[in-house]
Amino acid sequence: MKGRSSETSSERPVSSRRYLFGRGVDDYFKGIANAAAFVGRFFKEVFRLPIHLREIIRQSYYTGVKSLPLIALTGFIIGVVFTKQSRPPLEDFGATSWLPSLMGIAIIRALGPLVTSLICAGKVGSNIGAELGSMKVTEQIDAMEVSAINPFKFLVVTRVLATTFTIPILTIFCISVGLLGSYVNVHQEEATGIITFFRGAFSSLSFLDVASSLAKSVLFGFTVGMVGCYKGFHATQGTQGVGRAANQAVVLSMFLIFLEELVVVQITNWIRLY
Fold first, then answer.
1. pTM of the entire structure?
2. Are 126 and 63 in contact (CB under 8 A)?
3. Distance between first and last Cα of the chain
4. Domain segments of the chain: what residues?
């Protein structure tokens, strides 16, 4: 009897672990299916009337104008610091004249879109997740459905379009300020003229570099808005769910941004080769 009881007790943890593992895998694939359905619904609703233009402009204002000071400060500091860090290795080879070209490649190809999208993921994505999560747990979204208002169209589509249109503009602004910060440092050290600096910064760039940078910023903007709306739209468990939605919106957005950066860079390199 003792042997049987010990055998059954040892089998229970194994079976419970298998059940939890299978349930975790099932929930994971259900989450992917729900996210894919959420994205598919966005592309269906975006082409349907009405178009809430006033709400899109309002969300663009909060996404773009409210983020300008932080983007400007961060972009300028990145330009100055990256130039300072790149000068000593170039001085060892006597190639400081290549510094403007290096800064143009680094900031326009990678740093500008990436830094802008990461800042917006932390600032805008968390705000969208918390705002929609709060509306979800307080049943304001359900009240909109009762009032014959399409909450998905009004809340999700407008915010995703705002981030998709605004983050590329912020990226251009961040690139401009970053190059200006780099010029300030180069002018301070080598007394280089502004025309000479910007001519050198764009000398090694092609149309593909600029196009890929803008394409990445559009993709990153769509990701920030979509992830924030998805997490907020599916928030549960009261105020704790609101905080969890805001946190998950930031973390998942940043992870997807780095993943998309890797994919776009690889595709761009393939196009450049062929």
1. 0.88
2. no
3. 74
4. 1-45, 53-273
